[in-house]
Design brief:
228 residues, alpha/beta, Rossmann fold, 2 domains, 9 helices, 6 strands, 14% strand, globular
């Protein structure tokens, strides 16, 4: 692989990483929980951060009826997305830089396919070589399957890819797939035993405040595992 083609691909999480949808997701969860007579508190907001719709439904329902709750959540979230979504700072510039460098971008989301496709209509599906949604792989995040599926579809080694995430669930998925990982946002988004302050291992994590801090030299250093 030439230096110009390194990394082999950059794989983006969607909600909270590329697009500002976290408040929309929380509002959808609150609506559904209120309708079930199970109001959510601030601790629930933290617990629901980064969860797939399936896991969020289990959290809200407590187990029974989770399938029906999953459908309610998807519907409530989709209604809000139809009003449009906002790309987060630095997202468009980074995607354009990847395109100019010939580096494929993939979207790897824990959201259902209807949600992913709706967001892609807004942000431009042409910006991504492929997208992986819930149900497109055997298991959802935090399992490695979504990132492994994306790498396989692109025909690249996951270890030659950089994943960009914003939640512990997503970081765990990308790391277990073998990707180098960037976590965007608050310093505790990738906290826990899986996170590091730099890049020293084969799938360590580096944190940045926004996508505006991510450029091609950083991506290349992460894949080469060179010190920052």
């Amino acid at each position: 692989m030439s230096s110009r083609a390194c990394p082999a691909a950059v794989l983006f999480d969607m909600d909270g990483t590329l697009v500002d949808t976290e408040d929309l997701w929380w509002d959808a969860c609150v609506e559904v929980a209120d309708g079930l007579g199970s109001p959510l508190g601030e601790a629930d907001r933290e617990a629901l951060f980064g969860l797939s719709v399936e896991d969020a439904a289990l959290h809200i329902s407590g187990g029974p009826g989770a399938g029906a709750v999953e459908s309610l959540l998807t519907d409530a979230f989709t209604r809000r997305l139809k009003n449009g979504v906002t790309m987060l700072p630095g997202a468009v510039a980074l995607l354009e830089a990847l395109h100019a460098a010939g580096i494929p971008a993939g979207l790897v989301s824990a959201s259902p396919r209807p949600v992913v496709d709706l967001v892609l209509e807004t942000v431009g599906g042409h910006r991504f070589r492929l997208s992986v949604a819930a149900g497109d792989s055997a298991r959802n995040k935090p399992a490695p399957d979504p990132y492994l599926s994306a790498a396989a579809l692109l025909g690249v080694d996951p270890a030659a890819c950089v994943a960009i995430e914003d939640s512990p669930t997503g970081v765990a998925s990308a790391r277990s797939a073998g990707c180098a990982v960037i976590v965007v946002g608050p310093s505790d988004a990738g906290s826990g035993p899986s996170a590091t302050s730099g890049v020293s291992g084969t799938n360590a994590v580096t944190a940045v405040p926004t996508l505006e801090s991510v450029d091609l030299p950083l991506l290349r250093r992460l894949v080469s595992r060179a010190p920052l």
